[in-house]
Amino acid sequence: MRNIETAKKEQEAEYIWRAIDVVCDRSVNLIMHSIFVGQRRFADLLKYTGMARSLLASRIKRMEEFGLIFRRPYQDKPVRYDYRLTDMGRDLFDVSMMIVRWEKLWHDSARNPVLRSSHKPCGKIFTAECRCSRCGEIVTGQDVTFSYGTSKRRGAPVQRGSDFRRSKIKSSSLETMMPMLERSMEIWGDAWSVNVISAAFCGIDRFSDFEDALEIAPNILTDRLNRLVGLGILERRKYQERPDRKSYHITKKGYDLYPVLLMLMKWEAKWLSASPKSGPIMTHSVCGHRFTPIATCDQCHEPIVGRDVKLGTPAKRARKTRASRP
Ligand SMILES: [Zn+2]
Ligand SMILES: [Zn+2]
Predict the structure, then answer these.
(1) Residue 315 belongs to a domain
(2) Which range of residues forms the domain containing residue 302?
């Protein structure tokens, strides 16, 4: 049954939905990442992402409409364009850094190495951290609370579920070009999965509450819960016998996704909300202050800005050597 507590949790989850709608699309993520690492021309994006031409063209168009990228002519006759990030697009850098951080924490391996990026000011290979703008301490999923002050919810909620089909990208292309992205895209490239995770972070843990909060069809919800349990992001706990009922809880691996969500919320408040003050107020329980999440370098602890980062390119895996003939 819905109650005030559930409604409050739903409201919390609502704040991030708009950002998810824009950003959490497998193809959009892939294109953004490619542009971050310096692929700007259509032909290069085609090769780098392994996407079908028509899909790439439609997603680029959509990203231009969102205001994430813009076209710039680089040649006159014939006119040719490349794609650049707008300020809004460039601001997703923090989100991208936090995705890479999670990959490094949980999935870095010799077989699928995660990008090595260096921080120009300190000259070191680094991993991004998420810190509190007030006390400078690391922020984790357990020590942030949200409040809403007197601000009203902004605008009409986005229509969810309209364009949530998963984009088709040959996984073999990803295997070759960007093995590390394959896992992240399982999560961040699927808006429903991210919706479920953000609802879980807001304290929603029962099937019927997820259904209410997300207005999600039961079969889709079952699929996403199973998938997130399979990925080790959520775990099931039995809370009732006869009938058998289970609730869903965030695991340690899931908690490590929290900085990505915080950065998405920060981005959403800056770029998609009616006024910068209308977003949720984040309070860091460690220092007790309102704060903004800041991406910092784990080597020198200074804030990271895009121009100071030298992004690594996908590490080449050792080529399979043919067995020598007898
Ligand atoms: Zn703090
Ligand atoms: Zn540094």
Answers:
(1) no
(2) 4-310
Decide if 69 is inside a domain. yes
Angstrom distance (rounded) from CA 9 to CA 116: 37
Cα of 311 vs centre of ligand 2, distance in Å, is 13
Tokens of 97: 């850094």
The rounded distance, in Å, linking the Cα atoms of 241 and 238 is 8
The reply to whether 211 falls in a domain is yes
Do residues 25 and 59 lie in contact, with contact meaning Cβ atoms separated by under 8 Å? yes
Question: In total, how many domains does the chain have?
Answer: 1
- Ligand 2 center from residue 308 Cα (angstroms): 9
Tell me the CA–centroid distance for residue 145 and ligand 1, in Å.
11
The predicted-structure confidence for 246-303, as pLDDT tens digits, reads as follows 999 999 999 998 898 888 888 877 887 766 555 667 889 999 999 999 999 999 999 9
Q: Which ligand is nearest to the CA of 299?
A: 2
Within 10 A of 232 (CB to CB), how many other CB atoms are there? 12
Distance CA 283, CA 205 (A): 22
Report the interhelical angle of 179-188 vs 93-107 (nearest 10°). Answer: 110
Domain presence at residue 128:
yes
* pTM, 2 dp: 0.76
